[in-house]
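Researcher: Before we compare anything, I want clean individual predictions. No alignment, no superposition, just each chain on its own. First chain goes here; please echo the sequence and then give the structure tokens.
Model: Echoing the first chain and its structure:
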Amino acid sequence: VEGRQRVADASGGRMAAAAGGTMGAAAGGRRMRGGRRLKWEDEGASKPYEWRCAPDHGKVPAAIAATPRGGRAEDDVGEPPDGILKLQSAEGEVFEVRAELLWASSLIRSVVADAGLDEEIPLPKASAETVAFFLRLCDPSRQAVVGLGLHDISEEEFGGLIWLAKLLDMQRVLLQQLAHLVNDEFPDVYVGIPAELQMLLLRHASDTLQSAALCHILRSVVRAPMSKMYASGIVLAITPMIGSPDENVRVAAFEALMNFRVVEAKLVLLEHRDFGVRASANRFLRAATPSEETVGAVLQLAANHHSFLVREAAAKALGDIAPVGHELAVQTLADLLADEAREVREAASGALRGIGGTDDPVVIAAVIRQALSKDWPVRSVALAVLAEIAPSKRELVEALATAMQNGGATMAKMAAARVLQSMRSVKELRDSTQRDSEEQRDNIAGAHGSPPSSLAGPRWGDESGEED
């Protein structure tokens, strides 16, 4: 499937390149062929790039709600009233402002709904200077910020603005205005953008940033120290950008997730359609210290994902990060032994060998359920697992394999024969190892003048005894 996808992508790329070469600089995207005028529609510039694994045949992925590139979808706030709001700073100074300017604030709407427009709205810890600066930045006409540069905002002022935006639930509005300032001064301003502002711009206003500025932030923000909660938010903001129609943004977002040393980024990359990317994510998860939260996220991918490629990668990851005997992981992997894709069954089989332990009754019961399946591919892979994790159930495995060998399809007979041969080989190897160990012990005993263990008399209670 991946091979066909790559061939299709390559063919599409060659066709696009060929089309671009023949179009030349034809005005309006048209060219002449055989006396007819053809209109070209360049969908590459606006069509999202599909980076996730394609769903299995007949399966439709769950619908994903469309959200802006820079954050959550905007709520329907309704029409603002035609009136004036009164904001009171920490010093008691009152600012009058048009209601429509702050109507995006859930706090403002709530206060107006409860007390009307005449009520003064207190803004604790917000200085008069901060309130005035905030209102200046939030003017949608941007007339009030003409001549203002990002370097004109001190670190203290920036902290006050962010706090006030959080209080009013207007972070996105404020950060969109700051993103315009970045665009106006980029690339000169980029060197001086604080790391915190970069992260906030990425989370709340990436759709406002120019492509070049956004790519710079993507490449640098993942190197900044941040808390786990902040890292999760950054990953959520970056993930949609991997499918951006803009190739530069797409590449920068992908590189950011690849270089981002957090588990959340690698869980996203487990869904990537490229095998090497999924393998890289698996290697990171294997080396990281797994948490129950991480195991739960991988379990969700293994159990519910619409693509067998992702279920395969998740099953392999479970074998590396789940603790031995983890009940949910064992049950999920046992269920995957019945997956319709052979690759998923084999990955689940290998993972169960790793975390199933030895003679664990819970694991044995889960695998036996699949060993009794009516489908021979499921029975054969379950028997192979059972033969390895349940040495005490050798007779049961031999009976099930013999029954499958005596009836059913030719492939089922061959699979049963492989299981039986593997069990015999293991037994022969065990017996051979035991004989070698006994011979080595006898040779050591003979070298010290003692008779071989097979000829030595009783060592305790020996009554023959002149030596005694």
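Researcher: Okay. Second chain, same rules.
Model: Second chain and its structure:
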Amino acid sequence: LQYVGQAIVIVANPEAVNGNPFYYTAPPFLLWPVSILAVMAAIIASQALISGCFSILTQAHALEFIPRILVLHTNPDEKGQVYIPEANWMLMVACILVTVAFQTSSNLAGAYGIAVTGAFILTTLMLWWVFRNVWKLNLPIALLIILPILVVDIVFWSANMMKLFSSGWVPIAMAVFFFLVMNTHNWGRKQENALYEHQAAEEARSLASVAGGAELIPVLTGQKRMNIICTAPGLLSMLRSGMLSRADTAAIFLTAREGCVPPSVRMLACAMGSLPKTIVLLHVKFADTPFVPEGDRYSFEALDVDLGLYSITMSFGYAEPLTATQFDVHATLGRIAKDKVKLHPALASLVPAATSRRALTQEGNLSGTLMEEVESSSIEGEDDLEVEPQHAQGRVTYVSTQKIFAPDSARHSLSKLRVRLYSQLVSSGRPSLHFFGLKQQEALEVSRIIFL
């Protein structure tokens, strides 16, 4: 409408072409009020740009199109109020560079026009996709609605393409850059998943051919033939083989896939010949749905109580406000452990204790009984818990895997560059211990080189 208004001014007063048609759209006595209103509208538009950027990056991260980023929700009561430090700094640097490079808004007019009209076309095409795939409209009705809009959008876009070489290349270059980054990261994640599926299939064949997982023993003896333990059945076979000693500790291994055993488990087993007595495989996933009901927030599975192996999966929607309270992994694990500790005493180490009192009492012929009361002020409705001493005194360590990707020698040059770019993207993301709010906890990070 604003463009149409300026066009009407030029038709009525051709001399306005030599000046700025924008200022001629209002009477002289309204020039300053309208100018102040335009400045205020620009400020509001900039805030909308920042908020939109934050929302898009949040969902892109949940859908695995960008590396792990920190999303801070400034208001737990408002889902859309988020702050992403990385995005805020990138926007600031980009605005400064564009301002210094183009100096005036007139020099940037071509970039603005191509960006806006290009967004028009993409929005119309997405509306077409919704019509056909979501609303299931028949083809004639969909074309009747979309074609007129698309024709107008293409007319505006083609008119702005005349300014491509002056400043219109800026939004196109930015779009190509972000597409390359997001597509490469999504491609890398798919390559990782394919590699895991291949390793899991090899492990399944090994377990099926040799009863008791005898093929897993070379992993511990250091021989050249090494099998990769990447699934829970493989880990159970290794633990049942008796080749490992079990330290009286508890460890929570962060894993990128549900039911997957992270490389850190096998690496610690190979290097130290020992694993903790209580092992929890923790997976935090983002669902394809915007929100996850609280009843489906987590799933718990005792893979083997005698061997102390458990699996916990936490779920979040890609559009959920990940507030500090809701996304506190350590506190959530404490609540889960409190609910399960009566049936699984090995999880007592995971219950957060605000106060811990130990009393040694003697009664009858008993030399002494160690009692421990575990109380947590952060958990509502908690009762005093009596746990066995060997579990109550254990320590909890969070173990994460830092992945370093290297290109396989069989790949061609462009594919190797893509792998290196993916490795840089992964390394530039927020470390998992920081992302999940575990940097204040006792933690261990294990590095591993993966060839893609």
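Researcher: What stands out in the second chain?
Model: The mean pLDDT is 80. Additionally, The first strand starts at residue 72 and ends at 73.
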